[in-house]
Structure formats: C-alpha cells, structure tokens
Amino acid sequence: MYKTLLGREGFRKGMDLYFKRHDGQAVTCEDFFAAMRDANDTDFANFLLWYSQAGTPSLKVSSLYDAEAKTYRLKFSQEVPPTPSQPTKDPMFIPVAMGLLDSNGKDIPLTSVYHDGTLQYIASGEEPVYSTVLRITKKEEEFIFSDISERPVPSLLRGYSAPVRLESDLSDSDLFFLLAHDSDEFNRWEAGQILARKLMLSLVADFQQGKELGLNQKFIEGLRSTLLDSSLDKEFIAKTITLPGEGEIMDLMKVADPDAVHAVRKFIRSQLATELKDELLYTVKANRSSEPYVFDHANMSRRALKNVAIGYLASLEEPDITELILNEYKTATNMTDQFAALASLSQKAGKTRDDVLADFYSKWQHDYLVVTKWFALQAACDIPGNVENIRKLLSHPAFDMRNPNKVYSLIGGFCASPVNFHAKDGSGYKFLGEIVVQLDKINPNVASRMVSAFSRWKRYDETRQHLATAQLEMILSANGLSENVFEIASKSLAA
C-alpha cells in the first residue's frame, strides 16, 4: 500500500530514510510509517489504523454513468467488521488503484476527478494517464470522472492495491469483459476467480436441490480464449484457468458442505476437460521440453501451464489420457514435471496409481524432503475412503510418528482434504481423534497442532458437528492428557 500511494520512487525514498534513521536499531511499525511520510512530505491521515484495528475491511462500490454530462461516478462505502475486543471501528485509509475500460477493452485516458468539493487533475503533462489511485479515508466517499464519452467498465483495486473484500455492482458481463481485456493482470485473474466462485456456489445450490448440473458456455469460452492467447504470460494463464479451491468455496457458505463442493468442482473440471480437450492436449504438447532443467521464469511458467493442463486432462476417464500422463511421468527431466504427473495419476485408484507411487518412492527414498512430499501427496488424495490408505501408511518404514514433519505431511495433509477428513460417516474425524490421543504421549506440541483441525466444527452441518464434538470429548476424557492438547481441544469445543 505504501508503494501504491507513493509510487516506486517515493517508496524508495522512504526506504532510504528508514535505513538512514534506524540501521542497527530495534524499530516499530510507527517508525517505518514515519520514514515513508517524512521522506515524501505527505499526509497519510488514518493509515496507522491498519496496525491497530483487527479485521478485514469490506469495501462496497456502486457506479453511475451520465451520458449527457459525460461523467462517471464511483461511490464507495467501507465497513470494518466488529471483533471481540473492538466492537466499533473507525474508517480505514484504503488506496484503490483503478482505471476505466472502453467498449473495445482499451484503457480510457483519465484527465480529472471531482472529489470532496475539489476538482483534481490526474494528467499533468502531455502523456495520457490510464490508471490512478483513489484515497478512501471516510466511511462514504464519491469520485466523479469527467470527459468520459461512453459507459466504461471499471477496473478496481489494480495490482491488489489494498487487502480488502471488494463488493461491486459489476455484472457477469462486465466480469467476462475484464477477464478478456483488462490490462491489469491481477484484475483479469480476479475477474475469472469471481466468476468461478459465483458459478461454483450456484452449482452447489443446484446439487443440494438435486438439479442437473450444467456449465455456463460463456465461462468455458472465457477460459478457452485465455488458454489460447499467446500474448499472455504462461504463468498468468496457468493461474487464470485454475479454479478456486474447495476450502475457499466452503468459506463463502453459511453452512459448509464438503460433499457438494467437491462434487461441483469435480464436475466443472471434468466438463472443462471435455470441452477444451483439444486445446489442453495442444498446450501439453507445445510446452514439453527435453532440454536440461533450467530455473528461470520462462521455463517455470512453461512447466506450470503444461502441468495445469495435465491436471485437467486427468479428470477424463480415458485410457489414452492415462497413458499420456504416465509417459509424462516416465520422460520427465525434473522433479516439478514428474511430481505433477504423479499427482494427477494418484487421484485414480488402481494398479497404475499403485505402480507409479511405488516407483517414485523407490527412486527417491534416500531423500528425506521428497519422501515427506510423497506422504503429503497421498494424504491429500481425493479418492473416497482414503483414510484406510493413510492408516496403512502409518506402518510404512519411512514414516515415524516421532518425526514432526512426517506427521504434518501425512496427518496434517489428510486434515486438509475436505472430501475425506469431513467424510459424512465420521471416519476422518475418528481417525484424527485416535491419532491425537496416541501422538499426545509422544509429542504434545505436535498433537495440539493436529487437534486444531477440529476448531471450525461449527461451520458444518449438524451431523458433522456431532461427530466432531464427540471426538473432542473423547480426547478430553483421555487419561494423562497434556496441557497443550487440553487447552486447544477445550477451547475448540467451547467455541
């Protein structure tokens, strides 16, 4: 935010003064703030509230275009939700980097903005200015842009200029437009994520009501155009076509439903793979390389895009696709590509999965970190009933309950898998309860971290709530329970 407000040069001036004043000292956030302010002789108003007020601000924005006056209004309102020790909050200083797009997807030159009774000029020279930073410091503020010849589509929070939850009146058509045209890559990605979250939540509701699931064709075409746009950075493409995670979607629900969210995300991935099969196959082929491993952006982004495409294709139940991924595993010249292929193959129960997991272990059993990664991969697997595979891995010669990292990778990795940890039959909760009691006698610190996986039990339906609290009560009744585990378990139960 400092850099957004001050620009690159202003931020550097602030850093120079900060080091000049405080090199070798113990310093505070206020010292850093003062250096930024003094070096640039600027007013940061209530910026220090970011350090003293808890909670993520919610920023709402509405827009209005006046074709006759050729003006475009943006009205902002902010609210910081109450927290236990701070029931009421003051308005924050929120820098909103933004631009406006015309009907062709081009940035509109910004000349001036009317705000708080003053006309402020944005462009100071002959060079056009396409992006500016609005300073939101009050609960409600309005900005009016002049000389706007057509209704624009606003690109807000460019570069993620402030860590806030943004609620706008952008329509789905506006979001698809930003996904296709925005010059700011963060906002282009965010538009796609917003559309994906809305789509997934809508399909979750359909799934819960027993309706047939269907995918919006506009969403498919939006991802297709992104996938085939050779002008875009490959790492950006890889991130843009990646769907939000299941945990992210459950966090947006009043009552989290792991089964519905998992089913919907699996459906969307499968449908996209079917609709974009040719494009995904081309992407894999175009981004293969038999050259020696190189660690630079071009090669990292190439590998990232190829492996995301492989992940989509893996959702198709087709023997030729399985063979393609198996070949990627066998011919990989680096760990990144080999492990990505292994991850895709590990999601399908059967002989091929068992063979590649065994092969990978035999090749890398000498490397502690790789074996830890191998455990984590199997722990997070979405295969139904995976808890039984985890139980078997507890007896694997490479696993040691006394080794915290091995526990975090296998047990912690399993707890991060919504579909199996939150299994409706309670098998995941029962497994963790047993492990915590056993682990508490070996390493109470590690056991207390594991039991924290139960801390959000109220987010789920009544059946899962009863199953989770039963395990917490079982843990609390164990003989000789450590203070570490007792504290976390009792606080979780009372939450």
UniProtKB/TrEMBL annotation:
<dbReference type="GO" id="GO:0008270">
    <property type="term" value="F:zinc ion binding"/>
</dbReference>
<dbReference type="GO" id="GO:0009507">
    <property type="term" value="C:chloroplast"/>
</dbReference>
<dbReference type="InterPro" id="IPR024601">
    <property type="entry name" value="Peptidase_M1_pepN_C"/>
</dbReference>
<keyword id="KW-0645">Protease</keyword>
<dbReference type="Pfam" id="PF17432">
    <property type="entry name" value="DUF3458_C"/>
</dbReference>
<dbReference type="InterPro" id="IPR037144">
    <property type="entry name" value="Peptidase_M1_pepN_C_sf"/>
</dbReference>
<dbReference type="InterPro" id="IPR035414">
    <property type="entry name" value="Peptidase_M1_pepN_Ig-like"/>
</dbReference>
<dbReference type="InterPro" id="IPR038438">
    <property type="entry name" value="PepN_Ig-like_sf"/>
</dbReference>
<dbReference type="Pfam" id="PF11940">
    <property type="entry name" value="DUF3458"/>
</dbReference>
<keyword id="KW-0031">Aminopeptidase</keyword>
<protein>
    <recommendedName>
        <fullName>Aminopeptidase N</fullName>
    </recommendedName>
</protein>
<dbReference type="InterPro" id="IPR027268">
    <property type="entry name" value="Peptidase_M4/M1_CTD_sf"/>
</dbReference>
<dbReference type="GO" id="GO:0004177">
    <property type="term" value="F:aminopeptidase activity"/>
</dbReference>
<feature type="domain" description="Peptidase M1 alanyl aminopeptidase Ig-like fold">
    <location>
        <begin position="55"/>
        <end position="168"/>
    </location>
</feature>
<feature type="domain" description="Peptidase M1 alanyl aminopeptidase C-terminal">
    <location>
        <begin position="172"/>
        <end position="494"/>
    </location>
</feature>
<keyword id="KW-0378">Hydrolase</keyword>
<dbReference type="InterPro" id="IPR012779">
    <property type="entry name" value="Peptidase_M1_pepN"/>
</dbReference>
